[in-house]
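Reproducibility note. Readers wishing to regenerate the assembly model reported in the main text can use the exact inputs given here. Chain order matters: entities are listed in the order in which they were concatenated for prediction.
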Amino acid sequence: MTKNTVFGVISMYFGSVKFFKRLILTVFWSLVAAAVVLAVVFGILYGRAKSRIGTVSAEVSDGEKLNISKDASIDEIYSALRANGYSAEEILDCVNSYDESAFASYISAKKDVTPVSETTVASETEQTRTSDVASAETVQTVETEPEYMALFPDLYATAPTEEIESDNTVYLTFDDGPSKNTPDILRILDKYDIKATFFMCGGDDEYTKMLMKQVADRGHTIGVHSITHDYEKIYSSVDSYLEDMNNTYMSIYNATGVKPQLIRFPGGSVNDYNKGLYRDLITEVTRRGFTYFDWNVSGEDAVEGATWTTIYNNVTEGVQGISNGRAVVLLHDSADKYTTVTTVEDIIINLQAKGYTFAPLDNTVKPVTFRID
Ligand code: ZN
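Running the prediction on these inputs yields the following structure tokens for the assembly.
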């Protein structure tokens, strides 16, 4: 076959009726196929959109109808049913979703973020709808409460009802006692008729109990410090702190008959050991009615190398630097702090000469705290 013959056959074919028939059929079926594909695609998209905007009807299984718009979103329907006391399971039962599996996954996702307990869900089928709403709310509140709130039910104080203004007042505080040094400090305080505050570790031996009683009988304030003074242990959890606090509190109460109202956290309320915990600790002790005091003047008598001069200067100069009317001075009356004892009288003489008065802390004194947030 020559080239010309081939072209002749081709041009004959394109000019024939057969060709036009096939062309029309091809175009026709192409259009049908395109229409079907488009219909399927739009159907899927429409279905998705429908389940997203939620053209679902909410009808409860016993025939009771809720007044929910057919155009309401899944979210709105879910909220409306929850507000009427329906559990997540019941909502799924009574809603004829356009796309039930989508609604099911929506409900289960909602269940994860909605703290409705198993018992609440179960009880909802037995009780009246309205009371279920109330019980669901109650259960939610209970569930968010930390369990340590229930610990040590007697570990409560009376929260202050008033706050006094301090004016040129020095609040001497002694931590970590009592010890063999405590009687000397008591004698000095008596000599100047000064009341101070002792944040105690306490203890159960007879000598320690006798010292605690002396401090209380002489009218000084006793606050809770820490019976173990073991930072790592007490700041390992709120439970652990409360256990130590309760033991200290009971030790003081058993020895003196006084129920302490004040706390000084070992190391202060915010320290290197309780960074992740101090907000919870403060919230919890405050909830229990206790008032905690840090300090704004430190004798630095627990620092290595502390001498009579450093302690004396730290306190007398520190107090003069206070502008809010209340200097809360940190000192220690533990057994190894005899140097502190030797400074107390001179500190009193110095500050009294400058017009300062001394007072014991109580929970009406506006707290001095490290917390800044
Ligand atoms: Zn201490």
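We highlight two features of this model. The first strand starts at residue 57 and ends at 58. Strands lie at 57-58, 95-96, 169-175, 197-200, 221-224, 262-263, 291-292, 297-298, 326-332, 357-358.
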